[in-house]
Write a structure and sequence with these properties.
- The chain is an all-beta fold and 238 residues long.
- It folds into two domains: 144 residues, Galactose-binding domain-like (Jelly Rolls, Sandwich); 74 residues, Immunoglobulin-like, CATH 2.60.40.
- The chain is built from no helices and 18 strands.
């Protein structure tokens, strides 16, 4: 499987600006393409005693509309796991796959996948593939969570949480507002689509800014860590 690390952008969930999910990751598939959206590294822990799961919202619509559509026979969408830092993405590591025989709701549906067989640090990849030109459609991914089954100590990789990031999209300066009334120590990392840390800093204040003027355009993740609680948000840099 070829890892291109490109092709996803931010857009309205199911192409509906009034949808409760608001902004999500969207991949517009319309020709011979293989595209990825990958999370930053996520630590599941050293043992499998605590059963972890992946949870996210998934939707499929006709190209630039909210209409229902079926994936073409030459296409598929998959969630894949890497246990070696993103170096290897193989068919055997597909957690779940959707194709012409497995429909995806155009209104959106919550997907849950057990990660009970995995431990240590993983990276998750959302993969879309189309072999033949024509028959365009849009795939949406939002509200991605990885955590224990009872949702305790959840690792949040969605856009809707207490850490405020602005502007988004951003050009030169990225501002981060932290819920830090108790002056906790935060570590902040900006991670690119390859899972590489491109900027990082530490603070015990409520506000911090990053100069992003030298970064390439694309989707990034802002990862904040405090008291063993991890918060991850998507941001687009122009």
């Amino acid at each position: 499987m070829t890892n291109e690390n490109i092709g996803w952008k931010l857009g309205n969930f199911v192409n509906d600006e009034n949808h409760a999910n608001q902004i999500s990751a969207i991949r517009q598939v319309y020709e011979n393409t293989n595209y990825w959206l990958m999370t930053p590294p996520i630590n599941l822990g050293a043992t499998k005693e605590e059963v972890m799961k992946l949870k996210f919202d998934l939707a499929l619509t006709d190209y630039q509309t909210s209409d229902e559509i079926t994936i073409d026979e030459d296409s598929r969408m998959a969630v894949i796991i890497s246990t070696d830092g993103g170096e290897t993405w193989i068919e055997n590591n597909i957690l779940r796959e959707w194709n012409s025989t497995t429909p995806i709701s155009n209104e959106g549906e919550e997907i849950q996948i057990s990660l009970a067989d995995y431990s240590g640090t993983i990276i998750l990849g959302f993969y879309s593939e189309k072999e033949i030109t024509g028959g365009g459609y849009d795939i949406f991914v939002d509200n991605v969570f990885v955590g224990m089954v009872n949702d305790v100590n959840l690792v949040d990789v969605s856009m809707k949480n207490s850490v405020k990031i602005y502007p988004n999209p951003a050009n030169d300066i990225l501002n981060i507002n932290l819920p830090n009334e108790k002056m906790n120590h935060y570590k902040i990392e900006i991670v690119n689509a390859h899972g590489q840390i491109v900027l990082s800093n530490e603070t015990n204040k409520e506000n911090i800014s990053f100069d992003i003027s030298e970064l390439e355009s694309g989707i990034y993740f802002v990862k904040t860590i405090s008291n063993e609680v991890t918060n991850i948000q998507k941001v687009i840099i122009k």
